[in-house]
Amino acid sequence: MSKYLSQELVCKSFERLSSRTNTGKTHMERTSALMYFLSIDAAFKHFGVSILGLNPDSLEGKNSRKHVELEFTRLVLVGKSPSGVRQVTELGKIEEAGIHPEKRISSNFLTVPLKKASNQATPFYYPNRPKHPLFEMGLAATGKKWGIGFHNNWMLNFLAILTTIKGSTPLLDLAVFVCRDCAIDDGTADIITALEEQLKKRFTRNLADFWIQRIKKEKVMARDIDVPFADHHAPFASFYKQAPTPVKQYGQMEKSELIDRIHQLESMLATTD
User: Which of 71, 169, 200, 268 could staple 42 via S-S, CB 3.0–4.6 A?
Assistant: First the structure.
């Protein structure tokens, strides 16, 4: 028999992963970097490597790219909508339309920075905004032209990227979100043990051990974990009540953000005509 993380627990953890502010694109950019990082690490675990070759013209590279795309989709896809998919583009928010996750990571991360790194004679670091790189890429850094590995300071930078999150237990809440659909052994006694088991299954030992250590430190500040399990699985996005975007926020958006928002709303209206 298996059990699952409760919808209430996942919803509350996801809400705490929201940004401290409602302006700018910083939280979205940091969310993307985190999801890319977790997707690459899961691929490291799957293939048993510490450097991943992502050459688009080789069979190995194509297989590795496909696995990274699938891991990314597993992380950010939360359901279907009349306009296509429901996905997380920013922690704490669910988008009702947009490009499918596989295409998002392929056209963004696996094309722009990775291609730039493949043509660069010096090591390429990502992300460079904020300047807390999680990856190093390219021949000079990895020994492979299309190679990607972890930056030496990834642990500190991982924590630094989480500083825009409003909650006080970011590693615990992130783990809950990541493990939202996992089947948990019925004999598992508590939430910390459940998360530890799932993280070790899915991610490399270095990341899992680091993550679990931080979760145990955050436990003293944790809320809403007294009744963490449910007997049946249900998509948390069906229960998550997202706060509407304040009208005044549109006045603070950049032109490109407004255009993206208009396209999204037009797509949603078109499905209801």
Answer: 71
